Fold these 2 entries.
Entry 1:
Amino acid sequence: MQNPFLSNRKSFITYSGIWVLVMGFHVFLLIISERVTIGFALADGIISNALFAAIGLGLWFPIFFSRSEKEKILSSFINHIFACVITIGIWITLSYFLLYSLFGSQTADIAFLRSSLPWRAGIGILYYGVIILVYFLMIFYRTHRENLVKESQLMTLVKESELSSLKSQINPHFLFNSLNSISSLTMIQPEKAQEMIIKLSDFLRYSLSNKDEKLTALREEINNINRYLDIEKIRFGKRLVVVMKANEACYDLKLPGLILQPLVENAIKFGVYESTEESVIEITSNCNPDALSITIRNAYDPEFPYKKGEGIGLKNIRSRLGILYNRDDLLTIRKGPDQYEVNIMFPQLK
Amino acid sequence: MENLKAIIIDDEELARSLIRNYLKELPGIQILAECENGFEGIKAISELNPDMVLLDIQMPKLNGFEMLELLESPPEIVFITAHNEFAIRAFEMNAVDYLLKPYSRDRLVTAVQKAAERIRTGKREPEKITGLVQQPLAETLERIVVRSGSRIKVIPVDKITRFEAQDDYVMLYTDEGQHMKQGTMKYFEDHLDPAKFIRIHRSHIVRIDQVTHLEPYSKENYILKLKNGTSLKVSRSGLKSLKDKLNF
């Protein structure tokens, strides 16, 4: 980042203006003290302050580049004492020799110059402190403003992703087709219509809860899939055959919420949607104490390729797994000649 | 209403029974058959010759559109589907109406009456598209269904290397052979993925990844060479789109 005093004309003018004021004050004090000639007073004011103004600009770099979060307060304090000593050493030496080379013949002036060295050191420390403080304030202010912007951007992103995850959870076609089935059932089997409404409501309630933010027990996810499959069975009748091989010993293991339903939905889309006969969906779960493994299999007809819709759902799941477990090898897809198989491993976090 | 003969085609039993029950008390309509998929649908339509078909779109093997494409002179079609994104394509195919599931009895009766009106007046101009349409033009084609003799073949678009116009038909070329399909080049040009296919001539659409190079043939005339050795004429506008797409 560029020195804030050099980044635009306005702040450079302000910086220079302040130094001109200080310079004037310096000269004024020397003149009313009547201990030096006016020429010396002017030269001293200009040289000393112009030098410190230049050094002050340079102080930006050690500050900006050592601004690491890890640095301890003590070590940063020590660093500043060192930097301060060196800065003031350079400043006094340079201004001393410049003034000496100009006024070496005027003994009174030089005597004053020598006697004022401790004062100069004191003023130097003050200047150093003020400049460092101003720099820190500027950095702090700028970071604060950047953080505010970042935060608001992050909030928007979170909102958007919540919205899109909500959208992707419930497939509108599933919803409308189910409602159509219910509409049909009300005419022929009202009790069954009621049963389907309750299942659909439970399914929607589960999907709308914020389960995808936290880990859920397998039991709950299996229950949700069963509700979903029950609804689809009412729609597809004998065409949908579900083989659930869920190992009950795994029921308390954890996995991200709402992650299995999209996979089952995919399986139905590629299996049942495209089949006129019975189509089997097989869901298997296995586990050991360190990991839970879920496999979802469906048959498909290789004669009737249908790839639309593939991709986005799986991509979402892959990225969710990546964020949660920080691994990209948890989802595996095997596409056989007439069978499609998706397997996910869920590492168990201790 | 005259005696209107109808066929219901939907893969879900409950969806069919809803139509049946809605129409039960409507006089003058006779349901000839109910079909579970496009294959049964084609068979029933050609054997029973109905006046109208109540047709679902999303069905196994052969969807509603693909089934329609295979019919020489289709009856009046009322689409009944949960998908709103196919409305434009449905009206392109001259559908009478497009119902979104779930729908009321009155809505279905209106659609049936529209069909009856069309049959009575013999008018078949497309309906004004209203309300439903929010999506841009229908999705790109993924597969194409062709008829060879009595067999129906589904060809994935990815296997097709090029399309060639032949009178009222379009010839589809794959590595395995060629298939004739009723339709226009314009239809395919509009519905193929423009990232994969390019129209190079009035009579030719080719898959972009099949192109090897362009050869000058005479002044301002070019020949496009394909991987399998085929040479095709390139028109002036074809040359322009080739240049735009492939940076020739």
Entry 2:
Amino acid sequence: MSALHWLTQFLQVIGALLTAPLFVGWINQCRAWLQNKSAPSVLQPYRTIRKLFHKDAVMAFDASPLFRLAPYVIFGTMVCAAAIIPSFGTRLPFSNAADAIALVGLFATARVFMSLAAMDVGTAFGTLGARREMLVGFLAEPALLMVIFLASLISASTALPVISEGLATRALALYPSLAFTGVAFLLVLLAENARIPVDNPATHLELTMIHEAMLLEYSARHLALMEWSAALKLLNYACIGFALFLPWGVATGGAPGPAELFVVLPLLTLKLAVAGFLLAMIETVSAKLRIFRAPEFLATAFLFAVLGLLVHLLLGS
Amino acid sequence: MNALAFDLQLLNTFAALLLLTSFSMLSQRRVVTMVNLLALQGLLLGAATLLLAWRTGQGHLYVSGTLTLLLKAMFLPWLLHRLIRRLGVYWDSEPLLNIAGTMLVGLLIVIFAFGLAQPIAALATTTTRSSIGIAIAVVLLAFLTMITRRKAMSQVVGFLSMENGLFFGAMSATYGMPMIVELGVALDILVAMLVLGVFFFQIREQFDSLDLHHLENLREDK
């Protein structure tokens, strides 16, 4: 491992950390455009985070150490995930750890801490949010695993960099089964990141909240970390999607030199910009589902993923 | 598997997308979305037929492909949309089985269809034989769509989707039926749609709803 490898790895983590709020800001701006509203600045999430870091934290009287710890743990897992997802190159120092199942486990860890922290203070809304989050989570996880299993079947490995490299470097071949898992992955992404058909990120109605309800008790730097890790999670999911379905333009083979990075970075930016716009469009044209429809939504995702496996077995591609 | 020619891969992709549309149709409650999915299915079917025509050089497939595009991707959806607007039926009531259950049954049906298609595919000599299973699955899923819906509108959409599946099955097993049969079927579908369109108004006038369980009683008093 040369110094260049480590430098790229470092760049990838820092880049993910710094661009995550920008990605959220871009989505918000696109959504505002599409809904004929005047858009907030793309930099608004940065300002929010900065403002929150300058405030004094208020803690609930009954809060346990877990409540204080949770934001750091969640932020840590998201940074970890950002480090191992092959968004810049497939042969970076941390790539060996990027097993897809481990990645799903990382997200699950974050979810467990989030729910525990939400229930810790004992307010009604926190518990309600935690329960709903677990309901969504336990249905989304198998669907995500199924999506990954199909990609593993194609490239005979569960390591995300190997899958990505395998798909990116082979001769152009169409995989009809990937169409199914692509839809399934999109549904999981929407559900896991509290986007509109399942949850509304901009809601002020406590009764319909899932993700926001869990954050109600947090303030200042803890809230900033929570918001930041939510943005990172969305970015991570987008990058997993690129690794599985749009793997072209990621540096494969040896160390990505500066010249290669000049190709990788603009392409990644372009992919993120388009993905953000599409996400905003989906959120604009669809209405929020009733909470009891969410299991149905995720069952659809799971069944699409299974159907992808079946089609793969039938067509052999 | 990399030995497959690119156009064949494209055909397989069309086949998979056909299955995707019929599965999405199964998961839909809104009639309008179902009609849109039907139009998409017609478009995919037409594109697949034209591609197959180009690949095999069979003249009559060009005709039926164009006919499919005109009829199933444009005219019939337009007619259905018009009917929906005139009748004001945008929603189906709750399906008989809940959606998740329906889709689970749908999955089992797909497995069954794929198993059923294996011996047929082994006998067929066409290059598209691997998609026979998909065609059978589309037909059976359309059946399921018809069984689980109450309203006449969604049942008609299911019926048209079934015809799409049959057409695709004939195409992948034997490169399409003879021209005269295809023309006949297309005309049948068209006439059936027109008659059903009139029939919808009759049903609604009689029962004030498009719910078909009213038709199950012989007498007017229950």
